[in-house]
Amino acid sequence: MEHKRIRGGTFEEKFWKHVNKSGSKILDTPCWEWSQPRSFGGYGIFSVNGKAKSAHRISWRMANGDPGKFHVLHKCDNKICIRPEHLFLGTDWDNVRDRVAKGRTAQGETHYRAKLTNAQIMSMRAMAKGGATQRKLAAKFDVTQSYVSRVIRGVRRKDILNQSGEES
User: Are 72 and 94 in contact (CB under 8 A)?
Assistant: First the structure.
């Protein structure tokens, strides 16, 4: 990646001056942490020709070449780390699997598509045990009967079940 000299140094000089190479030690080697602006998602960003670009993606590109359509993922799970040795390429699916494996996916009531709170789920299950019909529960909680069925059977909202299948 070649860049012409710009005011304040070359592209690479301007980029690397925003990096703390003595960052968190999550893996065997310390993270190189981005010290400048971050995206709403918490990743480092750097302006390239007036456009915000991911700092870890720029770092990968300088060290290894253009990642193309691939995501640049973190082995260290540190969003501001840009150390090339802590990064790897992956597909959309690899990104999802990595996020799930590291416990970074929203589940239960924190998921953006959650219909009910944990308290409502526990209440629904208790009412079902007490004899309330799925149709009545669906009307009460403003969800479909099939959703109620899946909640009661533990297919949905497993996040608030313990190993015996009871609410925790």
Answer: no
Please state the φ and ψ torsions of residue 14, each to the nearest 5 degrees.
Answer: -65, -40
* pLDDT given for residue 164 in this prediction: 37
Provide the whole-model pTM: 0.63
What does the domain layout of the chain look like in residue ranges? 5-101, 108-160
Closest residue by Cα to residue 95 from 119, 131, 67, 116? 67
Q: Which residues of 103-129 are buried (b: 16+ CB within 10 A; e: fewer)?
A: eeeeeebeeeebbbebebbbbbbebbe
Within 13 Å, how many C-alpha atoms sit on residue 149's CB side? 4
pLDDT mean by block of 10 residues, the chain; 168 residues: 60 90 82 91 91 95 96 92 95 90 80 86 94 96 94 86 49
Q: How far is Cα 106 from Cα 164, in angstroms, rounded to an integer? A: 23
Was domain 5-101 assigned CATH 3.90.75? yes
